[in-house]
């Protein structure tokens, strides 16, 4: 009998399925989907799992849908091959035609002794609404190319009511395709579906080319793999980004429109502090004293207005001299609506005074429950000092392409759903409009985006939104003021006052 497809040992060539195939099969979520590179064997892995599922007494029927006859035939043949390898009692492939909405639809069926079947359709059968007995599974392959995927999913979701399962597999077919919209909705948190992502390089890292060499009888080498990778890219050009690297075509332009941004704004302060030559030339104790006065006069009145019953988060997009360094506190309301009560912008301000401002804000935020600091480059210093101050609630963010890919759809959804409120400020609007789709991922482009700015205010808000999603325990403490003698009297109720958001542990 063939080895279990979940076995390990990819490097040694022992595993039947590669790492990404194993992770896909091992995921038993009710609804899961994957954006993938071409020809990496996801349908093959799905067939392996579907045979085990349909052949099991605890399994159920499996229905497979794709957009052309060749894919459907290939899948059902893979299923037959797996059934033989597993030594599962199964019938030969039965080819038949059924009537659906006055149309003839070609189907292929394999029956198992368990009483379950795998049935593959050559087009979108409208009779899915009759499916959905307990545990039944639907597989939609190359979903981005299936006709009317939205209507198909609407009918399919009913299958989950009685414990059914839905598997959605596809490469991309354009930025505006419903499959890509579904992917972005999942990333935005609108659906609790399980999402997988495997591009060409990730498949290679898991042994794709090694497996190709093994199957075709070639000798693997690192140089040969690099040459083959480039050949594939050249072969797919100019569509290689979409076909191989999961980047939907037609990506480009502003990610957030002015109308969308301004609809989620309301009057709120934007504080600005410029580190002049005279200020920066002062000794550090003198700078600290002057900054303390500025904090007391400008920040403290705003911090005292914050609602002590609400959780708060904080994000900082750091810069030392070229760009702006922006701090964005964020209140999380009872309905999870997120509000930035004010922004703090600093230009050319020394590290120690930025730290001073950051701690003044963070240690005054009620129920501080998350901090995200841009910790690339010089920001590593502020990220480390913030972690020293607040510990595990601090995320020292390195904003990679994957980070943007996962974070930005969630942030955009706040605007689309009107669940965020930002300070009404033209610079902040321009900062948000600076986000561009680069290789299909929303991010800030290189260089200045408006005047001396580089989307700094928007990035601070994105980081604050990220901090609000961190799964951490908020900071909460009771401050004990000391009397003239410095001693605490437990019988004196006047000495107990409640405060929030301190770095004290």
From TrEMBL:
InterPro entries for the chain: P-loop_NTPase (IPR027417), Phage_Mu_Gp28 (IPR012036)
Record-linked Gene3D superfamilies: 3.30.420.240, P-loop containing nucleotide triphosphate hydrolases (3.40.50.300)
Region (Disordered): 483-505
Pfam families: Terminase_6N
Name listed for the protein in its UniProt record: Mu-like prophage FluMu protein gp28
Organism annotation: Billgrantia gudaonensis
Higher taxonomy: Bacteria, Pseudomonadati, Pseudomonadota, Gammaproteobacteria, Oceanospirillales
